[in-house]
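Sample 3 of the quickstart, ligand heme C:
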Amino acid sequence: MRFKNLVATTLIGSTMLFAGAASAQQAFGKAEDAVKYRQSSFSVLAHHFGTLGAMARGKAPFDAKVAAENADVLAVVANLPWAAFGAGTEGGNSKAAIWQEKAQFDEKQQQFEAEAGKLVAAAKSGDLDKLKAAFGPAAQTCKSCHDAYKNK
Ligand code: HEC
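Result:
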C-alpha cells in the first residue's frame, strides 16, 4: 500500500514536472521575458554553485548539511535556463551563434548537465574529497560554454 502511494506520488510528480517544462517554453511570448528568465535562473544557479565551490576550494568551512541542501537546489536549477533559449529569443548577453549552431550549444549544455549531476552526487555524499574532485570539471563546463556563447 505504502509502495503504491509512493509510485502514485512519483508519477504525479513527474507529470507535473513535464507540464511545468512545457508551460515554461510556451510562456515566453516576448524574447525579453526569455532573456530575463534565463539570466535569473543562471544567477540562482551561480549562487548555489558558488556556495559549493567555496567549500570545495577551502574558502568556506565544509558543512555536509549545507552542501547537500545546495546540491538539492542545484539539481533543479541546472535544468532551468535551457527552455529559455527557444527560437526567436536572441538577446541579452547571449551570442547569436547559439541560434546558428544549436546542436553545438546543446552539446555544451549536456556536458554541463553531466558534470553537474556528478557534482550533485558528490555534494550529497558527505565526503569533501569527492566534492573537491567534482567541482573543477563542473566549473570547466560553465567556462567552456561562456567562452563560446556568452558576451563578457
Ligand atoms: C551551455 C551554455 C552554458 C552553460 C553550461 C552555463 N552557462 Fe552561464 N550563461 C550562458 C549564456 C549564453 C549566458 C547569457 C544569457 C543571456 O544574457 O542571454 C549565461 C549567463 C550567465 C550568468 C549571468 C546571468 C545574468 O544575470 O545576466 C551567470 C552568473 C552564469 N551564466 C553562470 C553560470 C554558471 C555558474 C554555470 C555553471 C555552473 C553556467 N553559467 C553554465 C551559457 C551557459
